[in-house]
Design a protein that fits this description.
The protein has about 130 residues and is an alpha/beta fold. It has five helices and five strands, in the order βαβααβαββα. A five-stranded parallel β-sheet has the order 3-2-1-4-5. Bound molecules: cytidine-5'-triphosphate (CTP). Cytidine-5'-triphosphate binds next to helix 1, strand 4 and helix 5.
Length: about 130
């Protein structure tokens, strides 16, 4: 069984997220998602429109996702990868090169982002209304 992992905030869930998760899941048999907590987003200087609980419920309802767990800090990825016996870390290519230091514990793959959609765009549109 090939096990895949990815990370993100997945705020205002959109089709770019869905495509990333679909392609990640197709690379293996099992997909775990490390979901940024609201506290971790504050550390990153980000503020999600939806709270963690809502973002968690949405991800858990997605058929490509087998497990969702909290991402609390930058440093936990290596431990997660070992704990869940992960074969491949998949991230969108806005993170190109950022996680190459984990290549000693699993393969690291960056996928092309879906064009013309982001949580930031949706949030800005909502805030203007
Ligand atoms: N992603 C993607 N295509 C998009 C938007 C996001 O493939 N159009 C991917 C990201 O590369 C990442 C994952 O989905 O691997 C989660 O991204 P996240 O940062 O939560 O979503 P964004 O829409 O990029 O949010 P923001 O605008 O806040 O950066």
């Amino acid at each position: 069984m090939k096990r895949i992992i990815t990370y993100g905030t997945f705020d205002t869930f959109h089709w770019g997220h869905m495509e990333l998760l679909r392609r990640a899941r197709e690379m293996g048999d099992w997909l775990a998602v490390g979901l940024s907590t609201d506290e971790f987003n504050t550390i990153k200087g980000k503020r999600a429109y939806l709270p963690y609980k809502r973002r968690l419920e949405i991800l858990q309802a997605i058929k490509y996702v087998d497990l969702v767990f909290a991402e609390n800090d930058w440093g936990q990825k290596r431990d997660d990868i070992i704990k869940y016996n992960i074969d491949t870390l998949v991230m969108g290519d806005d993170w190109q090169g950022h996680f190459d230091t984990l290549a000693d514990v699993c393969s690291v793959v960056y996928l092309t982002r879906t064009k013309d959609i982001s949580s930031t765009l949706i949030k800005h549109t909502l805030e203007k209304q």
